[in-house]
Design goal:
VOC_core, VOC domain-containing protein, 2,3-Dihydroxybiphenyl 1,2-Dioxygenase, domain 1, Glyas_Bleomycin-R_OHBP_Dase, alpha+beta, eight-stranded mixed β-sheet, Glyoxalase_6
Length: 270
Amino acid sequence: MTDARGNARPNGEAPARHTPGTPCWVSLMVHGLDATEEFYGALFGWEFRPGPGRLGPYVRAVLDGRDVAGIGVLPPDRRLPIAWTPYFASDDVDLTAETVRSCGGTIGVGPLDAADAGRLAIGSDPCGAVFGIWQAAARPGTAVTGVPAVHGTPAWNELTTFEATHVTKFYENVFGYAAEPVLSADLDRVTLHLDGRPVAGVDGVGNALPRDRGPHWTTYFTVTDADDAVDRVRHLGGRILEPAHDGSLGRVATVADPEGARFALLQSPR
């Protein structure tokens, strides 16, 4: 799984450089920034610092001195879903945006500069799942590698869509992934690999996909105790969408914050 610590990020600090296609950032746009900070601060122990002004009201979530996520404010006239968005690294966000379009996807935001930290775009795949593209600034940064993800860090991203095979080709063409199907008669599931390591999953669920949700990415955040984290979510005003259960990644629960943003809690096997 990916280690988000030290990842490239739109925060104005010296960012790390990543192999194109690497999941490198997650962000959330909400209506109530103060209440959202309070929820995630209590759940994950995040602290918050201002982010690039170009992105509007925006804060960086910080854990153990390192940026782990970004949270911004939706303009009042924008009626967009409240959802966590994963970003994938690029050496040339403008070129990647063109590739997205040529492969049947769309670009809804950008490409645009995020202060002096880098350049970004937000797009969607041919089925409508939203994702970001992030090009870190050219100056060198420091990447932390080989450090186990700790409580409150993004650790995995999974795409839930109608059918895995077709949309997987899109991500292979855009980001250079190698797809490895999960061999099962009951599952339409693919793992995306980059440089020989798994970086994301694609789960085709057909008609079981919620109509009010559509194809979407889910970010998994590491927790030390999934059951305890579920209780915290409930106490803090969030919702439990799928109770904690044991799965292939570890013990997992799917939850939503008070504004409805869905995410997963992941307790890795010890």
